[in-house]
Design brief:
Helix content is 59%, strand content 0%. It is mainly alpha-helical and 170 residues long. 26% of the residues are buried.
Length: 170
């Protein structure tokens, strides 16, 4: 008979994996252009809504690096822990969010997971009902930009845990 002993301590962690590729250093012009694109996409959007969108897209894309960054930035901006936690199950937690936020979250999912059949008319129409046209165009830009960041982060295997709110945002 074999017995297994498991020792769990608060400090026992798997080692952090190194990044696969330091893409920002290797493609600095692309990185700088992304930072400018990100800044342009934020204009006119509510910062809280923006962080919710960035967190939700990053959850869908499994981008640990961006989840770390945008969860910390949202908390620093005054977002509640509860709303950040519930975002991954928002359909069961709709009472935590405004109708406008829900429309933005639905649009984020549709734009992020295009393989599900593109952006459905009803999802687009709901977002168009809550956002002025110019604001909607900015929201679509912001969703597209975080998806681009996610793809860099996931492919390069950027390690989460090092972001401090106030650092360069994306």
């Amino acid at each position: 008979m074999t017995t297994h002993t498991h020792h769990h301590t608060a400090t026992a962690h798997a080692p952090e994996h190194p990044a696969r590729l330091q893409w920002a250093q290797l493609a600095p012009d692309v990185y700088k252009a992304m930072v400018r694109l990100d800044a342009a996409s934020r204009k006119g959007l509510d910062p809280t809504l923006l962080e919710l969108v960035k967190i939700r897209a990053s959850q869908l894309n499994h981008c640990a690096f961006c989840l770390d960054m945008h969860s910390k930035d949202a908390l620093a901006a005054g977002e509640s822990v509860e709303r950040i936690i519930q975002l991954s199950a928002w359909e069961e937690s709709q009472h935590f969010y405004t109708e406008k936020e829900l429309a933005a979250i639905r649009l984020t999912e549709a734009v992020t997971v295009l393989t599900d059949g593109f952006v459905p008319d009803e999802v687009y129409a709901a977002a168009a009902g809550h956002f002025e046209e110019a604001e909607l165009a900015q929201l679509i830009a912001a969703i597209t930009v975080i998806n681009a960041w996610n793809r860099f982060g996931v492919t390069a295997r950027l390690a989460p845990g090092h972001h401090t709110p106030g650092d360069v945002k994306h």
